[in-house]
Amino acid sequence: MLNNILKLIILFSLSTLFAYLLFLKQADLLVFLAHLSTDQKTNANNQSAQFPIDSGVINATKNQQIIAKQSAGTVDATNEHTEQEILVDENYQCTTTPLEKVTVKKQSQVYRWKDNNGKIHFGDSSFQHVTTETVNLKRRDELEYFNLNMSGNEQSTYFNDQLSMRINKVYQLLSDLVPKEKLEKVTVDLKIFNNTNDYRRYSTRFSKTLGRRTNGFYIRRLNQAVVNKRSNFQAGQVALHESTHVINAGIFGYIPRWLNEGIAEYTENMTLTGQVTEIHPNTSWSKYSRVNTKRIVSFDELLSAKRSDWNSSNRLSYYATSWSLIYFLMSSEEDRQWLGHLLTEKASQRCEKIITHQYIDDLYPGGIANLQQRFNKWIYSASTLSTHRY
Fold first, then answer.
1. Could you give the 3-state DSSP secondary structure of residue 381?
2. Residue 106: helix, strand or coil by DSSP?
3. What would the pLDDT profile of 254-299 be if each residue is shown by its tens digit?
4. Hey, what domains does the chain have and what are their CATH numbers?
5. What pTM value is reported for the model?
6. Where are the beta strands (DSSP E) in the chain?
């Protein structure tokens, strides 16, 4: 009798153990299928971003539609906002002197000559067998504030030209906010890799894990922006973002993370249509052309966030709030002038960490409380976010 009971207990225990192991196998299978589904969705998002250069295209209306559809899957799918910059460089030292002196752009010479029939011609070349004279034109000197060096894998001429124009527009946009005498000449070294392995191999010079977590980063002491190109659209956005960091460092020196990222998130959605520059709402942080308020944190929290906070699970909220704040400030002439004043003060004290919570509270009319109140009214009352045109 006792033996039979023991046998039943053992049999029951074995059956329970077998059922539990079978459950674990099924759970693992479900997890695997879930990961497979996520990967397929991510790949679909990445493949859908096949568009010739994010904003160098010709039709602005079509650009807005494509940005709204494609950019929404960019951040989470590619982890672009996990770590986009190397903030700590042991050999980096802020300097109060320009990296390079601002120079006057060389103007092309204009010549005038008369043919055998007495007709006057103008051109940019002189001729040995024709008597020419130099034409003295009253032209305003054009200053060269910006250099762009592109390297890495070879890109198409169209891609390079369009990207170069857009990065130059970023510098012009920022330079319009501060007096010309406060500007420094900035050289951006932009490296673009078509092959992920090449990108990761290069990134290991600075961090062993950086290349596996990002599609772009920048290094302050080298004035260098690095991009892992997955598509023209994605590479254009990342290149604009990272190049903006380099320009910020060149003009303003040390600036707080929220201001640095906010400006970069703002400029990465730039498009060009002829001579018109447009900045579209960043669809990573907006929904249906409205700010996604679920990701917004208070300004008190944003301005006091430390590096560990930016690397925490709440980092996307800091990116979203930083972009929203810059978009808000650039939406009215009054606040745009205030932002320009803030950046001018920073450019005047490049190596000083002057932009603190207290500094903003003292500088903004009515303090941070009024800034927060006006910002909240803007994000909750605006039916849509208008495109900014320059």
1. helix
2. coil
3. 999 999 999 999 999 999 988 899 999 998 899 877 898 989 999 9
4. 48-99+141-389 (1.10.390), 108-135 (no CATH)
5. 0.70
6. 103-104, 110-114, 120-123, 132-135, 143-144, 146-152, 186-193, 216-219, 224-228, 270-273, 276-279, 286-287, 290-291, 388-389
